[in-house]
Each structure stands twice: as structure tokens, then as C-alpha cells.
Fold these 3 entries.
Entry 1:
Amino acid sequence: MVISNKPLQFITAILIACLPIFGFSNTPTEGKPVPTETTAVAQETTPVVEEETSDSSDSEQAKQIKKQIKEVIDHHVLDGHDFSLFEYEGQHIGFSLPIILWDNGVHIFSSSKFHHGEAVAESNGNYYKLHHEKIYKTDAAGTLTEEHGHPTNAKPIDLSITKGVLTIMVVALLMFLLFTSLAKSYTKNGGISAGAGRFFEPIVLYIRDEIAIPNIGEKHYKKYMSYLLTIFFFVWFLNIFGLTPLGINVTGNISITFGLAIITFIITTLTANKNYWGHIFWMPGVPTPMKIVLAPIELLGVFIKPFALMIRLYANIFAGHKVLMSLIGLIFIFQSWLGSSLSFMLSFAISIIEILVALLQAYIFTMLSALYFGSAVEEHHHEEAH
Amino acid sequence: MEIPKIIGAGLVVIGAGIGIGRIGSSAMDAIARQPEATGKIQTAMLIAAALIEGIGFAALFAV
């Protein structure tokens, strides 16, 4: 290297050591929001503050910080109808996304009509209000009939382009461009890849040689390769996107992982041969009473295996995000040199682990899908008696 | 914050921790015995750990 290692290490160490200065960013006298935090709905905090006037100002401050942190975490992990990055001095930085509703007719309008949950949007005579990122049908005044804290208004069918949907489209486009350019580079360079795609070639070969062929077998693996590759890179890229501070959490959403698991389930069921169903309902090689006992258990297993796929990916990513954001929130709660810097280092270590988890969960999802496909197309083995 | 829920969650984590710990230890023994099979052993260890973690998370969400 041209630059020697020592000055780089020194600069990096100085930068990391100076970062606990963020602990001072929220002064105890005023309760104004920190510019780098996102506060989703500011009116939610003021009723809480009015109730707490009897307490001392310190605990009121602490409660307000905790409320703000909870809102930031919710803003990060939940899907949203507009793409707001953060709020700076009352101004939301971000862009609004189209809202598409089906309510006896298609209503399409921009989410800026909602003004971040404060205004009632009107479209073709129907009025809609946004409450906790769900759209309810109301009258012109925006009344929500509450019951146990949840509004009981009618909800139109919500087909909007939300943050998650936009991210999926962006990742799909990214994957498409990346891999078509990689494929084209083979023809241009005579069998050798070039460009940014070179990083992905060994990964593609790894998926083929270590995941697809050992689990599915030489005869049938080609049918499933496209799905396995898609799933691997899709989940991996979405996990990595979730670790950025943009606040897009797609694979930590149970609807998304439900969709992926359903596709695996459908492919397994539709391409299964007779041996697969035979193993479920009438397991060969065991005595007949055992066969009758095993049949319902195996049938349950057919549904539990994709269900476990869904839960595994969802829980890993969602819990990881929540833990990481809570640790970052701990920096602001401590507001001291020692506490904040320790929280910062801990959250740094946890985010390194989260990067590993992103890749690992994508690998596990792909590997287990390949395993299920393999069991679906398994040929009949003759039991050898010694 | 009900107490039985907290105790249940703790038990789930203990179970998952012990399970994955045992897998890790037998993987270490196997790698020590046969260092050239390290790749395969690592792969199998990761798969088993992910399956156990899956059960752990599912139970945690039910709790």
C-alpha cells in the first residue's frame, strides 16, 4: 500500500473516540427533538408531557426521551406510506409515495395529502385518515371511532406503494441490472466475467455446487437454480438495505417473509413426485402401525417447514433491528461520557454481527429451500438388507 | 410484564443457548479430529444452529 498503516489506524481511533460527543446532543433544560432523530407524530408526545407535570423535570425529560426513541424505532421497523428520512426543525426531509386504494373504485393520490398523519385526505368524495400508518375511511371531519385504543372505522383495500414496496422494486431493478450485465460480459470477454459482476460469480458457483447439487441432485437441480439464486440475492440485498440508516425494513416484515415462504411451499408442492407424497402419507420401510401414526405428523410437517422459514427470517431481522435501535437509543438516555461511549461501542459490535446475520439468514433460507426441493424430487432408494 | 412470560422467555433462550452450544462443541471436536473436513462440518453446524434459532425465535414470539 502507498499509505502506511499507522496514520490510518490513528485517525480511525480518534474518530471513534470522539463520537460519544453525541451524548451531549440533548440538553436537559429544553426538550427539543434532536435533529438527527425522526419524530413520527409530534402530537403524540404532548398529551404525555401534560400528564407528567406533577413529576420532577428530570423524569419527565427521561420519559420524553424514551417516548421519542420508541417513535424512532417504530418509524424504522414499520412500513410507511411515505419515505421520510428525518425531520429537521419541523420540516420533513423525504418524499411522498402514491397511495392506491380500492374502495368501490380506485383512488390514487399522493401521500402528501395526509400531511404526515395530521390532515384528512379527500379523494372522489371519500375521506381518508392515516392513523398509525393504516388508512381508515372517515367523514370530512376525520372522526375515528375508537375501541380499546384501535379505531373501528372501515378500512379500504390498501394497495399503495409503501416504503417496503418501493425498496423491493429498487432491489429488483438493481439485481436485474447487475446480473444481466454480468451475463452479457461473458459473451463480450469470451467466457471470463468482467466488471462489478466479478464479485458475484464465485457466489453463484457456490450456490450451484454446494447448495443446489448436493441437496437436489445432478438430474433436477437446473430447474430450481433460478429460484434459489433469486431468493439468495434478494434476501441478502434486502437485509443489507435494512442495516442502512434510511429506515427501510423489508425482510423484517412478516408479510414479505410470508410471501417468500409461500413461494417455496408452492414450488415444492407443485414439483413433487410420487415418492414425496408416499413418504408423507405412507412412509416406506416402517411397520404399518407406525405408518398410521406418522401420516398426520408428516402432513403437519409439510406446513410447518415453510412456516418455520417465514418465522426464522422475520424474527432474526426484526429482532436484530429492534435491539440495534434500542442500543442506539441507550446512547441518548445515558447522556454521560462513560455510558454513551459504552453503548456506542456495543451498538457498533452488534451491527457487525448484524451484517453477518444478513448473509447467514439469506444462506439458510436458500439452503433449506434447496433441501425441501431435494426431498420433493428424490428418487426411490431400494433398502439394502445386510 | 407478566412474570410467567418473563420466565418462559428466559427458559426458551436457555434452551436455545444450550442446544447451539452443544452443537458448537461437537463441531469443534470433529474439526480437531479431522481438520480437512472443516468446510463440511462448518456448513452442517450453521444449518443446525439456524434451525434451533428458528425454534427459539418462534417460541419467543409466541411468548
Entry 2:
Amino acid sequence: MSGEIPGDRIAIEQLRYVRLGTPDLATAVDFAQRVLGLQMIDKTDEMVSFRSDERDYTLVYWRGEPTEQAVGFEVRDMATLERAAERLAAHGFKATLGTAEDAARRKARSLLSFDDASGNRFELVVRPLNSGWRYFPSRDAGIKGLEAVALRSTSVARDEALWTEVFNGEVRDWVGDAAYIGFDAVHHRLALHPARKAGILAIEYAVEDVDLLMQNSYFLRSAQVKCVDGPGRRPTSGQLFLTFVGPDGMLFSFVAEGDKIAAGTGRRPRQFAKTRKSFCAWGSDCEVPEFL
Amino acid sequence: MIKLQDVSYVRLGTRDLEGAGEFATDYLGLEVSERGRGSLYFKSDEREHTLCYFEGDPADQVVAFEIGSRGELDQAAAELERLGHAVHRGTAEEAEQRKVRDFIGFNDPTGNRIELVWRPAHSGQRYHGTRDAGITGFSHVGLCSTDLARDEAFWTRVCNARVSDRIGDAPLLRIDEVHHTIAMFPSKKPGIQHINHQVESGDDVMRSFHFLNERQVHMVFGPGRHPTSSARFLYFEGPDGMVFEYSSGVRSIADELLYRERQFPMDPKGFCKWGAKPDIKEFQ
């Protein structure tokens, strides 16, 4: 990566949404409502969106291939979006400005999409819709909002550099080569895990507290949802976590607590060993190869 | 009124002293403080011992409470005798075995063997567990009761216990600001129903859950959280079927005047607010 690109790094305002293709929309809708506990917002034959917090939606399932996935981030305004396109191009990434229709489908004013070196698809949106009505879920899972996304990366160093050089991300910790990248006070919003192929590894929703996390744990068990990791505590972020399998093999997590990182404290990223103990401080069982 | 200051120790008979010792150290995480002839003493906190296993009948179980002065111990003996309890004055040798200056023994109305002790020994050396279970100390016992109303009256009128909450008719009793030091549970026979050690944090409860589960220790309840005391808990089975509990975050009742006990249902929801279901017959 070139360090000579002029101008400031592009500020990410928020992790905004995840879009997932699925051949079986009905199963995905049932999972998102009954198991995850999200609130259904829009439903057409082609797509369904779900709310988890004050934002209009944070999860979209649409009729398509499960490999067609995108993670959406918000940038402040059109000027930032244009600058992002230039900066991405200067770093060798091909960014495509979405049509007005594409942006409208995402309930945003403008849209720019690009792939990282691994082939993970990202979207930048300007002025995505918030909801004037509060989130009212179908079951009381205690969800506070979309917290983070874990990605598989075939080229962690290059993918890491994208977020720290083009954008204003900071590596908060490493476990082996896996990088936890943050943009705000939350320990991380993106986690890049070395893998043989790209794709979203896990979509993580924050729940209120340890009680909700454990209540969800017992609920998922009784609903015969396959839990593949946790409940446990991450030594890196301090988060409690519980990871389970959703439609098309996609992993979802509930997380709670976690260290807050204050700006300007000079905190340095820490390197943890690539062992199971760096992923769970409780000694929980795990079936996810990336977390072993 | 008999003023109980603290719960002191538990004495448990066992036919397999070696096995019990292994469980107490390798699994439970206590520290051996002394190997006696036919007995093993364990430390869990700043006290000289809080658990003693001795060669004998596993039905032979004792729980001890500390009394403030020898005068109060004498008064307690007189009061218990007046109420028709046979009181045993501990001999010097028996007191030595218990690491106390003096004690009396009697049966509560259900038939649980209780000892009241004066000046139990503290230790100059701090507790250092065999494994890092995060134990901060022996904290309470569950006692079997064949008549909950009668036994509640004994502990609250003859002794100084107060009801903190009830699960069905089962009272959780405090003798200081800790939510409960004695928990009574319905049963057909006397005995210690469970033995509780506090651990530092909820993390320790979960770590022990995975540690013990991996070693095929029989889990009987949890991990969970009590709606009564707000403590996070884990119950598992030890030697001779005795149930041990780890818990963390037990509620403190600071305001004796304003606190009112609450009624909880005798069903899984009364025992756990996370949704765990007990595999303990006294909790069903």
C-alpha cells in the first residue's frame, strides 16, 4: 500500500447493515424474527429487511446466492463519498457509484460499492434512513443493535491496510494474524480472520447484559438452534459472546459488555497468541475453525 | 436468642477419604490445610479450615456457626435444653479436632446436626487454591427440612436469622447483610442439601462450568442466576452425592428496616432467571 496518498483518511461514521442473499427467503425470515428476535420492516417477494435499533434496518435478506453478501458503512456526506472513491482508486481498488435506484433500495441518498483484496463486498452509503419509531422486536432478546461483523480474509495484511490506510480504522488487537479493527469507542466493528476463501463469518448483535446473553443461550438451546461457540468471554475485547448457526450456514452472535476505548489515550494494539485461549477466557467449546 | 455470627465449617463423613480429598482439591479447588488421622481439613479463605472430611458414614454431616462469646454459648446451651434439644458439650479433644476453643452440638428440629462454636481458628496464611477457581470463601449451606414452617420458626425465633426471600415455602435466611447464609429446602430426611463457596466473578463461575464439564463432573443446575439473591451460580455433584455450589454477586441487604422479603415460585423460574432447569430433587 502506498503511504503517499494525499489527504485525510476517510471517516467511517457507522457500521450500518449487512445484506445477505438466500435461496430460501421464508426460512431466513423465520430465523431473523423467531430466533434472532429482530423486527421485520419491509417485505417484498425479493427482499426482507429487519430492524435491531434506531436505524431503519441493519439486516437484509434478499433472494439470491448465499455468496452474494455486502457489509454497509455510513460516511458523512456526498463529498466524503466522492473522496472515498478517489482514495480507493488511488490504492488500486475499483469502486462503483451506485445508481439512484440502487441507493433508494438501500434507503440511502448515495451508494458506492467496492471489494477488498479477498473479494468481500462493501458498500458506503450517505444519509441512510433512521427510524422515527423505536425498535419493537418480536421476542425480547434484549438486542441493542448491530455491533460488529467478522469476515473471512484470504489476505489479512492487505485487507487490514484497506481499513487503516484508506479509512480511519485502527487495529485494536491481533490474535495471530486475525485483526480486530475499530472506528469508534467499541473495541472492534470488523474482525478479519485468515481463511481460504472470503465471505462473512459472523454477524454480531449486541444484547443488553449478561442476563440477556445467558437467557438467549438457554432460549437457543430450547429452540434447537446449533450453538458453535460460547457462551464465553473474549480476552481481546472483553465481550461476552455466544455464536450460533443461521440460514445458509451463516454465523450470528450475541455479544454483551466489552471494553470501551476512549479516544486519545494512546492505547496500543495487543498481540495475542493464535490459540483457543485467546478467543475465550472461559474455556468454552468451539466448532468454528477460525476461532480455534 | 441465639446470635449466630457466621457459618464456620462443614464436617462430612466419607467412606473414601482419598477420593473426597482429590475432589476437594483438584476439582473444587480448595487447599489442604491439614491431614489428620482419618480426616482431611480444607481451607477456602482466611480461616484455618472451612471443610473437614472424616472417615465415617456419609450421612454423618455437621454444619457449624460461630457464637460471639463463651457466655452466649452457655446461654444457647441452656435455651436449647429448655426447648427439649439434647445438647452435647464438646470435649477438649473434640474442640481441638474442630480448631475451636469451645463448642456445643445439637440437632435442629429436622435432625440436622448443628454445632455452635466459640473462637474458631483463623489462619496466618492466606488461602491458595490447588486450581484457580477464584474462590473467595465458604459462604452458606442449604439444609434439608422435613417441616419448613417449623424450621423457619426455629432459625428465626430461637436463633437470630431473618427471612430474605421464600421460594415456595422454602426460606432463604440471613444472619448478617449477606442475602442468605442458611437456605432451607423441603426433604423427607435431614442432611446438608448443598455447600456454597463464593467465587470472585461471573467469569469464574463460567470457567469452572467448562473446567468441571470437561472432567465429566455431574452438573445438576446452571450456569444460571438466582432471581432471589441475584447471584450467578453453578451446582454440581461431589463425593457421596453432596451438591456443591459456586456463586458470585450475592445481594447484600444493608437496610434491615426497609427490606421486605419476597415470595418466589417453587419452579425453575423461582430458582433461575436465565432459564436453567434444576436437576436437584429438593429444588423441584
Entry 3:
Amino acid sequence: MTIPPLPPRLTRIVPARTWPILTDIAVFASVLAGFFGFLTIVQYWFGGPTPQVEISRSVSALPVYAFYSVVRLSLAYALSLVFAISYGYIAAHNPRAEKIMLPLLDVLQSIPVLSFLPGVMLAMISLIPGRQLGVELGSILLIFTGQVWNMAFSFYSSLKAIPRELREASRIYNFSPWHQFLDLELPYGTIGLVWNSMVSVAGGWFFLMACEMFQLGKRDFRLPGLGSYLQTAASHGDTRAILLGLGTMIVVIVLLDQLIWRPVIAWSDKFKFEQTESTAVPRSPVLSFLRQSRALSILHSKTTGPIVERLSQGGHSKPAREKKRSGGRSAALWLMAALCAALVVYALVQCGLMLRELHVEDLVEILKGAAATFLRVNIALLIAALWTIPTGVAIGFHPRLARLAQPLAQIAASVPATALFPIILLALIRMGGGLGIASILLMLLGTQWYILFNVIAGAIAIPSDLKDVSRIFKFDQRERWLTLILPGIFPYLITGMVTASGGAWNASIVAEYFRFSDKLFTTIGLGAQISAATDAGRFNVLLLATIVMATVVVSINRLVWRPLYRLAETRYRLDA
Amino acid sequence: MTDRTAIIEARAVEKFYEQPDGNRIQVVAPTQFSIFPGEIVALLGPSGSGKSTLLRMLTGLSTPSAGEVLWHGKPMGSESPNVAIVFQSFALFPWLTVLENVAAPLKARGVDVAERKKRSMRVLDTVGLDGFEAAHPKELSGGMKQRVGFARALVVGPEILFMDEPFSALDVLTAENLRSELLELWQNKRIETQSIFIVTHNIEEAVLLADRIIVLGKNPGRIRTDFHLSLAHPRDRKARVFIEYVDYIYKVLTQPDAELDGRIGTLAKTRDPGKYQMLPHARPGGIKGILEMLTDQQGRIDVYRVAEELGLESDDLLPIVEATSLLRFVNVEEGDVEITPLGRQFSNADILEQKQIFREAALENVALLQQIQKALLNKSDRTMPDEFFRDILDEHFSQDESDRQMETAIDWGRYAEIFDYDAGTKRLFIADESDAGAAEVEA
């Protein structure tokens, strides 16, 4: 896709119009390819009942599988984006809804997504019976639930942070709500959305690997994709196929990074809310390539341009002054709230009935499991912190090392831990280790990167004045770490640890229970219990275990991370 | 004034916040005034006097708690008035170009693209921005950004151009330049606005620009004086009349409790201060600074000259003067500040003695500090959460104001070693167990 730049002499001979035509051809070709892909997907989705897809291990299947996986991920992401923006918008604009929506977001963020799997799948299959589409939509919905919350929260907080005078400017000039959304709110939230999207999509790969192939009771669900390819390859012990699958995945991830994320980051730079121009501006060759396309600019002026224009003018006749609440609307709202409350109560009663079938021993088992997983998560966090803090600080303090190490670390971090899991397990079992160790390793693989990247960022942010002070007064290593480095990186470290902790809990569901070449590996833990209950179709155990896990995660967030976070924001802020 | 019809009329508008316990925090007291065509009105006042609140009520951005705002005799809301605001922070959309920023209000009004561009370019030309239309705001200097702000306001041809401290984010020279250009445009009738309403805390700026000046008092915000200036443009800062106006406003502002009879130059007896004392937001360093300067200047000085010599805006200077007078280090009279014997003693003392003098003066004159000390001494562990005192303050002040009161009290309390504050636990405490006054021992 990237075309090498023409040598300077040639550009002078070649007429200036050549570039746009070349780009136009490329753009049309990609549109055509996209349409073809769409047709393929539709054909496969509506291809009739194919509950037992055979996953091929041949190389020729890989491109198609990779394509399927990417489409799944993209659809889930598109859904997340729309949902996140709507959710954030409503929460920021409606104070009454805000009171419910924010705590809800907090809880939803902490619920282990993979325990939704059976529920979502069964619902989807019964809604769309006999078609591959049901399973497909189920997996998309699952990935969606894994990536949407942080995006919604980011958009919400961006909206809340819009400077008062900018809001007033758009009100005094009677911007319609659409005009305000397009010219003020969306641009203001873009940068936060872009960064959170990257995190979310990385998380999406993690879940994609887990939900392309799984068992529910006696039913075996398989979706053709990279994840199922890797699992099949691993369970057949086919090393060549494993390596090919991994290679394909890395290529896809790197391509997505170059073709989507880099251009998007470069483009979103114009939405940075700053008074002066920064010196280091992100650049992307792909973006400048697209900007030169004449076809795209014509498309914009013929389609999106006029639509945006129409939307912006929607409210010019009526003034956007402070709204007065009408009685009729609030009555309808009350009715809706009552309806929602009734539904919630009904669901709670059903849950209660389901849980009553359980014995005390079940609860004891689950609590034991929770303790084991708690231990495992914290060991993983500890190990991650132990190696990432010195490494991250070393990288952050030495710019030359950073230039070398960062791209490598980024590639390593982008490989979803779930994809590597079969391979690691294979190796560990050959060496005689068990799943207990392997599951810690998996959590580590999935979550250490958050800590590493944050520590690097923190180390870079320590002002050189402070470093000079520690040098002038000849601090020894101990004093240097205790008074300069650790407090300096503290806010970043906490941010990284919070994300890592949530990720590790979620990972436990796939890490503690693993089916491999028809053999079952399991260890005691809450994650294993959730998976086992899913397998056996014991929904009451599943429900209880999920509730316990969500409670544990929410309480850890409230009791441990939030106070630490507040401390980081007040005492350890460097700019204050 | 009755022969002309007002564009806008504020009828007993006020703003207050109802506390949950039924207490009412009055931000702006019932206020009455009108704006007429052809005048530049400047609204002056110390911080916390509700200048911005008043501006937002007049423009319809905020609804008055009581009273009403009339546009051409009709209540606001029945029709949408054609107004524009120039903001202190410019409030430009950084992701839009200069042209798009200026055209945005026209887009909201449904003007088509070609017409939008034509009108925006014309205004950009007027404010001296031709050639910059494709630039983004972040590429421009502060002065240029505010020109974009002016262009965006002027493009809708507002009946009244509202300005909320439009020059205070700019450096002195840029502000001076923009001010005179605005005045020139206004006088040559090159901008289609019938009237200009400018909120400012810069006294000289008000006297330079305005045909009429309204001075607000604080706690609650209310009009203290409203007068017309009979001075031809361009105005000379060195002229005797100019200085008289500036002096008069300083007098009004330095005696917040004096009753005014409306005639310029006279101030009458002091109002009864029956209210909860409001701490002026000044730092001990500022108090020391002004006392040192007074000692150098034979103990008596005109407030206006202090501002000029220190290069301070009245907004920064007045709280310091007020605080120094509250502690009885100076007497303020008719716009002059005179040092008291105590003030002289403070000024000549060494650092520890200064703390001691400050401590005594503060505990004698500042009710809040007395309350805090008493409450802490009554506790066996000599520590209290700051929330306790914030609750007391909340009964008398708005949320922001009580935050500022607490901040100032903590600052003074720490300096005078009356108590200390732990920002982590948010508790006030007296450190020394045996004696409440560590300072006394040291001194």
C-alpha cells in the first residue's frame, strides 16, 4: 500500500496531476476489495446451518481466516464506538440519567466479560436459529462488551471537561445540538476516544481468540478465524501451523497499526486542545497519501459535506437557551424509570430463585477459588511490577534505548496472550509444570505491558531539573529511588496497575481451565469455576461465581486503587 | 435618559443559590439598569462581585433567580436577542480554521456557504486578519486570537457587543493596541453594533473606553455607582480629569462599605457591617510587600500610585490593601493608604517577630481564624477536619467563595503558626501539645 516516494528529480518532470490519479486508483481498488469482502461475509453468514465448521490447518486458509477475524473485530469496534458515544453523550447531558449511568459503567467495567459468553451465545442462537449468524453475532457482542466501557467513560469525561467559555460561545451563537456535537463535542472527545480505541481493540484480540472456539455443554461452537486456527493447530501439536498462525497475526496487527492507527493518531492531532503549536507532531505517510486523493475530497463535498451542513442548521430557528422541563416529558420519564425498575426487580427475583438451588458447599468452593485466583492475580502483578519498573525506568531515562526498545515492546504487547497460551502450555507441560504456574504466566503475558508502558511514560515525564538535583547532592541509589524515581512514576505506575489488575482477573477465566487435545487441564480458581460451569451448563454456579468475581474486582477498585489514585493525583502530581 | 428607549433593561434581576437547609446565598442583589444605543458601558468591580454573572444574565446564558431581563421592552426568551460575546479565553475552536471559526455563528443561522464566506472575509478584513483565514488558532499569537474572537462576534452584527474581560489575557502592549483599534472602529461606525458592554477589572481600561461606568460592590454583588464620563476621545491618561475619574473609582473600591450619594468625588459614612466577615484573598507576602513600600514612601501613598508603581491590576492590589487594613496595619481614607504604628513595627521586625505580630493581629481581627483556633484548642487531640469549617462558611458564601475563604485562612494560619493543615487527610491541627503557640516560645 505504501508507495516509495519518487526521487526529487523525477517529481519535477512528472506532472503534478499524476499523484491524485494514482491515489484515486488505489482508493477505488480498496473500495472494490472492501465490497468483495462484504459479499464473501454475507455469503458465509447466510450460508445455511453449519454448526460444525471444520477448521482447516492449511496455509491457504490463513488469509481468509485472518479476514474473518478482522471483520469480527471491526464490527464489534464499530458497535462499541456508536454505543460509547451515545452513552457518554446521554450521561453528560442528562443529570438524572448521569446518576445511574456512571456507577453502572463502573460495575459493568469490572464484570468478567467471558462469563457472559454462555448467556449471550444461547440468546443469540435462539434468536437466529440454525444460522451461523447467531454464533457470529454472539461473538461480536462479546467482544463489544469487552471493549466498550472505557471508551464510553473517556467520551463522557471529555464532554464534562469542555471549557465553560467554549460551551457558552456555542450557546450564544445558537448552535443547534447537532452543530454543537459536530463542531465542539465530538472534536473535543476525539483524542481520548482514539487512545481508548487502541486499548480496546488490543483487548478485542484477546477475547476474539477465546470466543472463536469454545464448548457450551455438549455443543461445540467454532467460527472460522485466526483464533480457532491457532487452537486447532495447538491441539494437534502442529508446530508449523502454530508458527504460521502467529506470524499471520503479527502481520495483521502491524498492518492495522500502520494503515489505521498511525494515520488516525496523526489526523486526531488537530483536535488537541492547546493554545500553542507543539513541536513534535505525529505524522503518517498513509494519511498524507489519503489527503491527496481527489476522489475522497469530491466524495466529501458531494455527500458528507451537505449532510453535516443540513444537520448544523437544524436549530437555527429556535434559540438554544436554558431548557425548561415540561411536565409531560417528566411523567413519561417516570414511567420509563418505573418500567426499568420493575424489570430489574424481576431479574433479581429470578436470580435469587436460581441461587437458592445452590448449597453452602458451592459457596465455600467458590470463595476458595476466589482466594486462589486473588493470590494468582497478585503474584502476577508483583512479578510484572518487579521486572517492568527497573526496565521501564531504564528505557525512560535513556532516549536512545527508548527508540530501540519501544517498537519491539509494542509488537510484543500487541500479540494477544490468548493466542500464545496453547503454545506456552504445551511447552510447560513438556517441562513438567502445571496449569497453576501456566495461568500466572498467562496473566502476566496479558497485563505486564500496561505497567511497562506507563512506567516508561512516567520516567520520561520526570523533569530533568529533579534529576540534576539528585546528581548534585550525590544521592545514593537507595535515596534516588525513594525520593525521585518511585514518587515520580507513582501516578503512572498506579494507572498501569489498575488496568493490569482488571485484565488479570478477566484472564483468569481462560487461564485456569484449558481443554487441549481432548484433555482437560484445570486448577483451583474462580476463573476455572466459571469456565467449568459454562462447560457443564450449570448456570446457577456460573451466576454466583460471576457475582463473586465482580464484587471482588469492584471492592479492590474501591478499597485499594481508588485511594491510591487520589493520592497520586494530589500528592504525587508533578505539574502542581 | 428617559427620552431614549433602552435596548436591554434589567428589572430587579438577582441571582442566589438555595442551600439545602433553606439558607440563601445571594450572589447578585436585586439590580436595575438599562443599556441604551450608542454607548460603551464598562462594568467594574472586585472579584466576587458578580460581574460575569450579571453579563451572563443579560445575554440569556443564565436565567436570573428573580426579576427579568427585557429586550426592547419584551421579556427575554420570547425572542432570541442578537448578541455576541468576546471571551477572556478567546473560546475559539482549535480544530477549526480562522475562517471556519468566524463563519460558525452564520452556519448556525442557516446562511449558505458562499454568503457565509463573503461575510466572514469582510469581517476578517475589518479586524486586520486578511491572509490568516486558513490558519488554525494555535498558530496565532494571543492578540491575533482575540482578533478572531472579535471577528466571530462582529460577523453576526450584534445589537450589543458583550465583552468579558477581553484584554486581560493579553500582554500590556497588545491589549493597548487592540483597545485603540476597537475604539477607532466604533467611532468610525465601521462595526454594526449599537452598543458595547465591557466587563473589566482594569480601572484605566474602563476610563479609557467607556461613556458610562458601573461599579459593583461585593457580598452580595450590587451597583455602587453608575455614572457618565464627559471626556472626548482619544483620552489622555495624563490629563487631570482622567486621573480624577481613576482616583474616584479607586476610592469607591477601597472603601467597600462606604455609602455613596451618587455625586462623583464624595464618599459618605460607613455602612453597618452586620454580615459574616469575608477574608480578602491576599497572601502574607503581599501584605509584607505593601508595608515595606509604604515605609519607603514616608508612610502615606495614593492607591492608584501603588498600582502603577507595582504594575499591579486593581484586582490583585485591592485584596492586599483590604487585608492590610483588616489587620490594622494601615488606614485607608479617600483612596489614600496610611501606615499605622503597628504596621510600621511589623515592617521593621525580623522574620520571627513579624510572624508574632501577624499572629496577634490576625487573632484579634479575623473572626474565622479565632473560630478555628478555639475549636482546635477545645479538642483533646487538637485536630479537626476542614469539612467542619467549610460547612460554617457554606452558610454564608457560595461554594467557590467558601473554598477561597478556607484557602486564605489556611494560608494565614500556617504563616502565623496558629495551626497547620494536612492536605492528605484534609485536617487542621495544632502541632505542639504542651503549648498552642509555638511561635510565642520561639519569639
